Amino acid sequence: MTQPRRAPLVTKVRAVSDVAAHMRQIELVGPELRRLRCRPGAHVVVHTPDRRVYSLWRHDPGAASMTVRIALHDAGGPGCTWARAVAVGDRVTVEPPRSKITLDGTARYHLFIGDETGAVPLLAMRAALGREAETYGIFETTTPGNEVPDFAAFTPFPWVHRGAAPAAGSRVLLRAVQDLQLPAHPGTAYIAGESDTCRLLQRHLVEQRGWPRRSVLLQPQWAPGRPGFGAGTRD
Ligand SMILES: Cc1cc2nc3c(=O)[nH]c(=O)nc-3n(C[C@H](O)[C@H](O)[C@H](O)COP(=O)(O)OP(=O)(O)OC[C@H]3O[C@@H](n4cnc5c(N)ncnc54)[C@H](O)[C@@H]3O)c2cc1C
């Protein structure tokens, strides 16, 4: 039977592990994952059963598998609750992948900036570029134990730590980006994470460093007081 184009996919949990103090990695498998095509940085809506959006850390069509990494944040919510409880063998419905940002094939170099949630799509995008690409990056989380581990083949980007300082509109990450040594000419920046922080960093690159706005690609992923961020059917 032919499936409607955006029909949800039925998967099963193959593996669950903790990759950081507050980040759980979940591998899903299902025959339909073999046929999917997705761009680096793509995300899926997971029915937890509430709809929640998570980026693909890895998609392996050969193994009919996809892997997500989910931040276990203090505010909690259906996504967090699901990730804490999920077990091998559980059935999980996901919607087919979509992309908001992806790699710019014309970039002179690539700059990746984000918090721990943004690190998931951004490090997957960097991995897709390969080791020879000219890349820069900086990430932020609460403590060293919450840094998101990178793919083994890559030298990790530096992380800064906000401790108990607010993640929203993060001054810690802004200062780190202000201090970043970059080539004199603009490249393409990919910024992902808390919504106000994304806009603060975009403003810095455009207004203080003179980057063209079109060279700064944003993926806001969450915001205080906004449950189910980005999961609307029209997003
Ligand atoms: C395109 C896209 C890609 C994303 N990729 C990832 C990913 O790969 N990994 C990932 O972990 N998240 C990712 N997110 C973010 C994730 O969808 C949200 O954090 C989501 O709100 C989590 O759902 P929840 O049910 O746990 O909390 P919700 O019920 O949605 O939110 C409850 C409250 O928790 C707070 N909150 C939500 N998220 C956070 C957070 N991260 N830190 C602190 N407080 C928070 C807010 O105040 C919110 O009002 C992505 C979002 C988008 C739009």
UniProtKB/TrEMBL annotation:
N-terminal signal peptide: none
Domain (FAD-binding FR-type): residue spans on this chain: 2-104
Domain of life: Bacteria
Pfam families from the UniProt entry: FAD_binding_9, SIP
GO MF annotation list: oxidoreductase activity
InterPro entries: FAD-bd_FR_type, FNR_nucleotide-bd, Riboflavin_synthase-like_b-brl, SIP_FAD-bd, SIP_fam, SIP_rossman_dom
Protein name per the record: NADPH-dependent ferric siderophore reductase
Organism expressing this protein natively: Paractinoplanes brasiliensis
